[in-house]
Amino acid sequence: MLMPNKITRPVDSLIAISGHIISIIKDKSAHIDEIRYELNQLYPKNVYIEEIILSIDFLFLIDKIEVINNEIKLK
């Protein structure tokens, strides 16, 4: 789920995962594998690669990140 609601807890929402991804790449660019490793160290639950990809897609669509040579960084 993208947004939390009565059924989806905030920790399970893509918006919360996207916020953590932004905190990971705020000072550097990173490959998706690095983001996955650091996110699973930080986040209170295990995050699957599908959720990470959807979160990265969401951040790209709202023009918060850019991808250059397979490296993801903030705009």
Account of the protein in words:
With 75 residues, this protein is mostly helical. The chain has a single domain (10-74), classed as Orthogonal Bundle (Arc Repressor Mutant, subunit A), CATH 1.10.10. 48% of the residues lie in helices and 11% in strands. It has three helices and two strands; from the N terminus they run H-H-H-E-E. It has a two-stranded antiparallel ribbon with strand order 1-2. Strand 1 and strand 2 form a beta hairpin. Helix 1 crosses helix 2 and helix 1 (14-25) packs across helix 3 (49-61). The protein starts with 13 loop residues before the first helix and ends with a strand. The mean pLDDT is 91.
CATH architecture, by name, is: Orthogonal Bundle
Count of domains: 1
Helix segment count? 3
Low-confidence stretches: none
- Quickly name the level 1 CATH class: Mainly Alpha
CATH level 3 topology: Arc Repressor Mutant, subunit A
Give the mean pLDDT: 91
Element order, helices and strands?
A: HHHEE
Report the sheet-strand fraction. Answer: 5-15%
Amino-to-carboxy terminus distance: 25 Å
Record field, number of beta strands: 2
Largest sheet: 2 strands, antiparallel
Shape: globular
What share of residues is helical?
Answer: 40-55%
| Order of adjacent strands in the largest pleated sheet | 1-2
Q: CATH homologous superfamily, by name?
A: Winged helix-like DNA-binding domain superfamily/Winged helix DNA-binding domain
What structural class do you assign from the helix and strand content? Answer: mainly alpha
The radius of gyration over CA amounts to 12 Å
